[in-house]
Amino acid sequence: MPFEHIAVNIITGFLGAGKTTAIRHLLSQLADDENWAIVVNEFGQVGIDAELLSDQPVAVKSIPGGCLCCVSSQAFSVGLNQIIRQQKPSRILIEPSGLGHPAQLLQTLQGEYYKGVLDLKSVICLLDAKQLADTRYTEHPSFVDQIQVADVLIGNKLDTYDEMDREAFYRLSQSLHPAPVICAMVEQGRLDINWLDQTAARHELRYPRAHSHTSIKVNESPQDLSYPWRRVDGYSRDAESAGWVIAREVLFDTTALSVWLQSLITEQSAVIRIKAILRNADGWIMIQAVGDQFEVQAHGDAAEQRLELLVSGSRLPEDLDEKLARYLEKPEP
Q1: Entry pTM
Q2: Cα separation, 229 vs 305, whole angstroms
Q3: Angle at 62 between CA 203 and CA 2, to 5 degrees
Q4: Contacts with 25 (C-beta within 8 Å, 6 or more apart), sequence order
Q5: Are 315 and 266 in contact (CB under 8 A)?
Q6: Burial (0-12, 13-18, 19+ Cβ within 10 Å), 225
Q7: What is the pLDDT of residues 206-238, one digit of tens each?
């Protein structure tokens, strides 16, 4: 490859840690003469995280289907090589899936093939310190492994923490060996751009546990002409996803739809994450929800609407298409 010393950062963190928001904040600090690119890996199949970054002045490459260490290494290498050749970036940010294990990704980036091409910089791990009191997170292999490879460990969503949350983050940061270069708490993903170039820790000293996933199986059902969307679901041993790609011309009653979606994640414990970019009569909105957090924000114009539910430890709820259709805006008679 005729490219040399491209800075690379991994921005990792469990579901709901705020990785995409943090990347958007980093991009807001980007100098006019810098050329960055982003590689996004998502468990689901409809590319919502990549779409959330599509309004940014950088190239975005989406690699769907689980965690980067478990999808085909060829698929990752092809996507990474494409963005290097086509965009010639000075820096690449890689956002793995929230369910991903970053160990093999680190090995790939530091392997012989990319020697002299990529210059691995800080691995930044975001977490929500409120999750440190919940064994569903602290005993989850992905949650633990992501923290163990961090050069920069960030307790995100500081504005929601109480004293116990802050103390839990402090205890965690003190327990790690080797210690991260930086441990800090921030609000709303406000990362300091200078953290990207902190001297990377000796990643070979950090050995996350071995793990195995079954492959992601994709089920794209024949389009039901009763509904104005395309449905794509993904399945693995660990989780399932239901995704919809919806024409931009379709309008929803997003107020009522948001109430239904919030009920799914608060009342149906199997739904662990919701992301959406949807359109109503007044414009576009973005929905991000995990645990008891449900956020609705304005969003810029998009080529398509997208909605995705992630389910862990259970089957997807039934009749989702029928229920979603209840919130379509009806045309005026």
Answers
A1: 0.79
A2: 9
A3: 65
A4: 188, 189, 190, 191
A5: no
A6: exposed
A7: 444 444 444 444 445 555 568 999 998 877 666
Q: Token pair for residue 246?
A: 């919806």
Distance CA 125, CA 140 (A): 15
Strand partners, 37: 59, 92
Residue type, 268: Q
- Omega within 30 of 0 (cis) for the link into 178: yes
Closest CA to 290 of 165, 147, 156: 156
Q: Contact 54/302 with Cβ under 8 angstroms?
A: yes
Give the span between the Cα atoms of 254 and 59, in whole angstroms.
29
Looking up tokens 């970019």 gives 277
Q: For residue 180, what are the contacts with CB-CB under 8 A and spacing of at least 6?
A: 150, 151, 152, 153, 173, 201
Q: How far apart are CA 153 and CA 16, in angstroms?
A: 15
Is 269 a residue whose pLDDT tops 80? no
For residue 84, give both structure tokens. Answer: 């290097």
